[in-house]
Every structure is written in structure tokens, then in C-alpha cells.
Specification:
By secondary structure, the protein is of the alpha/beta class. It contains seven helices and five strands; from the N terminus they run βαβαβααβααβα. It starts with 8 loop residues before the first strand and ends with a helix. Bound molecules: flavin mononucleotide. The site of flavin mononucleotide (FMN) has 14 residues, from helix 3. GO terms for molecular function: catalytic activity.
Length: 177
């Protein structure tokens, strides 16, 4: 933990999967475990996949998606840990390839170099999860120390229900700091 007198700071990186609408559950669970939270959304996720105003109200900080300008102060403290949930096929592959063309990806790409723990909960359809590039990406990121939750494809069951997305698993993977 970088600031002894303050709560540890968790970046929640939200990608553009349908389950992102439920990210409030992760934010509240993290706060219940005594994390302070800042939300970073991919540009697509920020374009309508979850309620930005609700997330800002819950965390007390604006949801970030765009890069700041060099003159702007850093709006969040440095992270003590990062949770990527949901993690999309697109973001997992770009992250593993070292592409940093969004704030979310830049944050993820530098986390390993900062030596902070990162947990990721993929939400990827089975057809995409079978792509060899995705399998390589998972292996590469695991090799960098990223802690992955169990595969989740978000597909609807025959009875119309959807399996629960295990948001709290990201916190379990990070453990206590
Ligand atoms: C309604 C909707 C739901 C989606 N759900 C998923 C999903 O569960 N997993 C996924 O990998 N992509 C999903 N996508 C596709 C991604 O949004 C798309 O690949 C996007 O480029 C991902 O951007 P990001 O990784 O920067 O957030 C979904 C798209 C839509 C329109």
C-alpha cells in the first residue's frame, strides 16, 4: 500500500461487455472491503454500457475514459491494485500485445511494470474464446502475473436466465493488501 494513512486505491477498469451494467456490485463490494475506488472505462464502455453518473456518485470521483492533457493534474491517486471487470476479448488481446491507445489499456499495460496486483474477469463468448490469439493472450498475461477469474461467456441459458457474473471474485483474487 502506497499511502499508509489512507485506504488502498483500486482502479476498476470496465470494458464494453453487456454485464458491465452491473459494475455497481463490484464497486460496493470493494468499498465494503475498505478499498477506495476509481473507475476507468474503455471508450466503448463509456458510450452506454453502464451508468457513469451512478458510478461517479458511488465512488465520489468522475469516471475516467479519456487521457488527461499534460497540464491537467492526475485525477486519481496511483493505484494499489487494478480489477478489470468485465474484460473483453478485444481488451485482453490488445493488453497482451502491449497496445496502449486508450486510457484503460495504458493503465493495464503499465500495471505490470509498476508491480501492482491485477485481477481480470473475462466475459468472452465461447466462439471468441476459442481463437488462438486469445489463448496466447491469456497465457502471456498470466505469465506477467495477472490473476484471472474463471471463464464466463455471458450466454443465456435455455430457460432465459443468465449465469451470475462473479464480480466479487476480482477482490478475492487480489486478496488483502
Ligand atoms: C450489447 C453488446 C454486448 C457485448 N458483449 C461483449 C462481451 O460480453 N464480451 C466481449 O468480448 N465483447 C462484447 N461486445 C463487443 C465489444 O463491445 C467490442 O468488441 C468492443 O470493441 C470492445 O471494446 P473494449 O474492449 O475497448 O471495451 C459486446 C457488444 C455489444 C454491442
Amino acid at each position: 500500500m502506497t499511502r499508509q494513512a489512507e485506504k488502498p486505491f483500486l482502479y476498476v477498469v470496465v470494458c464494453a461487455a453487456g454485464v458491465a451494467a452491473g459494475v455497481d456490485r463490484l464497486i460496493t463490494a470493494a468499498q465494503a472491503r475498505d478499498w477506495a475506488v476509481g473507475v476507468i472505462a474503455t471508450p466503448v464502455a463509456a458510450g452506454g454500457f453502464f451508468d457513469l453518473e451512478a458510478a461517479a456518485a458511488r465512488t465520489g470521483r468522475p469516471v475516467r475514459s479519456a487521457w488527461r492533457t499534460p497540464a491537467d493534474p492526475r485525477p486519481f491517486p496511483p493505484p494499489d491494485a487494478v480489477a478489470v471487470a468485465p474484460a473483453t476479448f478485444n481488451t485482453v488481446n490488445k493488453w497482451a500485445a502491449g497496445i496502449a491507445d486508450t486510457l484503460a489499456l495504458g493503465t493495464l499495460c503499465e500495471a505490470a511494470g509498476l508491480g501492482i496486483p491485477v485481477a481480470a474477469l473475462p466475459c468472452v463468448a465461447a466462439a471468441l474464446a476459442a481463437h488462438p490469439a486469445y489463448l496466447d493472450s491469456l497465457a502471456r498475461l498470466r505469465g506477467m502475473g495477472v490473476r484471472f477469474g474463471e471463464p464466463y461467456n455471458g450466454e443465456v441459458r435455455p430457460d432465459g436466465s443468465r449465469p451470475d457474473f462473479a464480480w466479487e471474485r476480482a477482490l478475492d483474487l487480489l486478496g488483502p493488501l
